[in-house]
Amino acid sequence: MDAALKIEELSKSYPSGKQAARALDRISLSLEPGRLLCLVGPNASGKTTLLKILAGLVLPDSGKAEVFGVSPADFAGMTGFSPGEERSFYGRLSGLENLRFFAALRGMGKAELERRLKSLGQSLDIGDALASTYQKASAGMKMKLSCARALLHEPRLLLLDEPTKSLDAGSSERLQSLVKREYLEKPERFALWCTHRLEEAWGVGTEIAVLREGRLAAFGAPEELLRLSGAGTPQEAYRRLTARGA
Amino acid sequence: MIPRLPLILCAFLRRDALQKLSYRTALVLDLAAILLSVATFYYVAKLIGPGALPAMAPYGGDYFAFVLLGIAFSSYQAVGLNSFSESLRQEQMLGTLESLLCAPVRLSALLLGFAQWDILYATLQTALYLLVGAAVFGVSFPSANLPAALLIFTLTLTACAGLGLFSAAFILMFKRGDPAAWLVASVSELLGGVYFPVAILPDWLRTLSLFIPMTHSLEGMRLALLKSASIREVAPQAAALAGFTAVFLPLGIVFFRKAFDKAKADGSLGHY
After folding, report:
1. Is the Cβ pair A77, B1 closer than 8 Å?
2. Which of B47, B145, B159, B266 has its C-alpha lying 20 to 30 A from A149's C-alpha?
3. How open is the CA angle A131-A132-A136, to the nearest 5 degrees?
4. pLDDT (tens digit, 9 = 90+) per residue, B160-177?
């Protein structure tokens, strides 16, 4: 089976004064479709950079990233990206007006949008956020709208950057169920979920990639990482895998 | 699915209209300022009186009609110059630029989407200037040559859009500080002929004024609307604007593309 995600020796540095700050250092990994990869790692370990490269927003310095056999930029029409920031919508517009606008940029018709909104509205419980002005929505509602926008056009590649950081436990569970339902075992799809919540990563991911200082510290199925690190819990495994010199 | 250009433009238009209408007070004040501005220049024109300035003769001698067209149409240069850069900057500040760039929309379509509301709004303002001037203060353009005016209008936008792309490129690279727009905008009021004919400037300033699109734009527009000049008669102004377009539009596109690729490589597209 062709890889859904194929990353080879991917490196990225950002200009930082006279020096360059390394964000990713020769990352390589490959995954089949129908999988849900969770990215974990300390702050500034390169998670968001990897997501942005796959969203086509940042160019790597070297190496290669392919999504279903093509470059991320060529796959943009079939990618859904939820950035981990609240500020990615128009504050004066309602949630619905915002989603309508971004749906139109993806060529979605009215009927298609309504069908999808009905389904996502129920799964994510975003009824209130759709009706009210975006700037008045709570942080959690804003994050749900961001996830809804990423999922709206039923993308083949879903990229979620800390999607549950402002969500309550119930909303977080509903989002996890939704993503699993729409992506797990689906031959044409692939999802990448970036999080700091280890229980969540171990519960959602079919595979987990642990990043540390831009490098791939560990990669494998959740139970495999527990076994490899000799840990009994995700927290312990994470501590061991991200420890310097590990 | 890749959306068609009209659908993209409609989406931007709807978004911008909703945002503009959400600031109703600002909208009303904006439009009220037009009334006050027209009234001010009406009384300045009364002070001068018809036929008092020989330099006004090529435009029919009426200072009020002259300056009304100057202030009404100068906004198009501002639109061409600033629309791309201001929209980009606003999207960066709102945090929406990266979300827009995730959509399968060509960069050129995004830029058109950014600019079209400003063009429409400038047209509304221009229409209001002329309407107030005509309805309240009695100015008229009985023999206006509209095809010639339309030609000058279109070339004004394309000529200034090239400079506007330079301006947008500076925003992508340096975030703030845009020497292209600053330079053109600062000298245009003095040298562009908004408030007085460039014929009254000293020779060296008059020569300098030829390097500003607004000089040719306002000259052509005034000749078309006040002296019913035909397309053939505004050909020198149209040729100058076409020259600006031919030089600055391709250069602006290349410069903007390079700035965009550099920002993408630096990971700074959304930075402000």
Report:
1. yes
2. B266
3. 160
4. 999 999 999 999 998 876
